[in-house]
Amino acid sequence: MVHQANAPDLPAIRRRLLAWYRKHKRDLPWRRTEDPYRIWISEIMLQQTRVAAVLPYYARFLARFPDVQALAEAEEQDLLAAWAGLGYYSRARNLQKAARNIVELGEFPRDHASLGELPGVGDYTAAAVASIAFGLPHAVLDGNVARVLSRLAPELGDIKSDAVRKRLRALAEALLDGKRPGEFNQALMELGATVCVPMRPLCESCPIRQSCEARKQGLENQLPVRGARPSADRRARKLLVIEQAGKVLFWQRPAESSRLAKFWELPDREQLPDAKVTDYAGTFRHTIVNTTYFVEVCRATIGSRPNGFQWLAKSSLEDVPVSTAAKKALALLRAQSAAVSRRSGVP
Ligand code: SF4
Fold first, then answer.
1. Is residue 222 part of a domain?
2. What range does the domain containing 126 cover?
3. CB-count exposure of residue 279 (10 Å: 0-12, 13-18, 19+)
4. What secondary structure does DSSP assign to 125-194, as a single string?
5. What is the count of structural domains for the chain?
6. What's the burial of 314, exposed, middle or buried (CB within 10 Å: 0-12/13-18/19+)?
7. Are 239 and 210 members of one domain?
8. Which end of the chain lies in a sparser environment, N or C, as judged by fewer CB atoms within 10 Å?
9. Which CATH number do you get for residue 61?
């Protein structure tokens, strides 16, 4: 339900927002290029991942796969290793499928409909790439934009409902600056990411506060309205770190695994009941979608290599896809060893 308010002054909002963006935008590498390949990679990485986390991956990924051809020809293990830690690995696999389609097409798709046919490219990404790389008038509606618009309107219905998404989409399209759609879309997303943030928006610094109905009505902290979220499931796990002569024992998920296919994992305690636990290293929390795991990490020993497991050299772990849980466990172990060395005065 859109709360009754005066029709917003769209030209004034556009003008103020663009002026603010030009002055305050963060200097991000994908904003310094017009190359659709680089813009597309950034949009895929930024799905479900924060900017700060994406930055180092983006630089490394492009150094390794500088163009569509390189990505299309990449070895799967190299691709997954470059993505390891970013999560949602279907994104990496879809990127490669899409790169192969583009190589077959002979050129990068240049309009919203053809972009939307690439694997892993939904309406949001197609609109973002079409507007930013090709200057086409397609409005984006991601989480940041939906939040800003729901406050601007104000929109009092559940932001997840179809009716509300439809109304917000109509507002996004009406508001879009047809002459500078890419810059305008980025300005709206930037406002949501840095000023109109989920908790306690910074209204005093907001360039469109004069037009914002939520602020006028004191609703900025209540909006957007969200339906109940599913509560997180909690589970316990115990991971074993078994080392021998500079190598660590791992198992690899099968290619048909629904999650993290072909990624390397540390053994769970239940997989190796005969292993002898020698030391407790610590516990960390690891969340996957709606499940939070409390992962206990233990050092252990084992007589001989069990079937289905492999020794991987510690020095090679950067070059193969290792699951985030396993990386966290190994980091915890390194931190524990460093603390022990400091306490005992051993360099
Ligand atoms: Fe968001 Fe406040 Fe700006 Fe409204 S005035 S758009 S609530 S930051």
1. no
2. 10-216
3. exposed
4. HHHHHHHHHH--------HHHHHHHHHHTTB-SBTTSHHHHHHHHHHHHHH--TTSHHHHHHHHHHHHHH
5. 2
6. exposed
7. no
8. C
9. 1.10.340.30
Shared-domain flag, residues 289 and 178: no
Q: For residue 152, report the distance from its CA to the centre of ligand 1, in Å.
A: 7
Nearest residue by C-alpha to atom 5 in ligand 1: 209
CA–CA separation, 170 and 143 (whole Å): 15
Task: For residues 54 and 186, state if they share a domain.
Answer: yes
Atom of ligand 1 nearest to the CA of 195: 8
Distance CA 60, CA 324 (A): 17
pLDDT, tens digit only, all 347 positions of the chain: 544 445 678 999 999 999 999 999 999 999 999 999 999 999 999 988 899 999 999 999 999 999 999 999 999 989 999 998 888 888 999 999 999 999 999 999 999 999 999 999 999 999 999 999 999 999 999 999 999 999 999 998 999 999 999 999 999 999 999 999 999 999 999 999 999 999 999 999 999 999 999 999 899 999 999 876 666 688 889 999 999 999 999 999 998 888 888 999 999 998 998 999 998 888 888 988 778 898 999 999 999 999 999 999 999 998 999 999 999 999 988 888 777 677 666 55
Query: Is position 43 annotated as part of the catalytic site?
Result: yes
DSSP state of 322: B
Write down the H helix ranges in the chain. 10-24, 36-46, 51-64, 68-73, 76-83, 90-105, 112-116, 123-134, 143-152, 162-175, 181-194, 213-216, 324-344
Is 152 a pocket residue for ligand 1 (Cβ < 6 Å)? yes
44 and 126 in one domain?
Answer: yes
One-character DSSP codes across 236-266: EEEEEEEEETTEEEEEE--TT-SSSTT-EEP
Is 212 touching ligand 1 by the criterion CB < 6 Å? yes
Pocket test for ligand 1, best of 189, 196, 223 (most atoms within 8 A of CB): 196
DSSP 8-state class, residue 86? S
Last residue of a domain, which of 181, 216, 251? 216
Pocket flag, ligand 1, residue 203 (CB < 6 Å) = yes
Would residue 4 count as lying in a domain? no
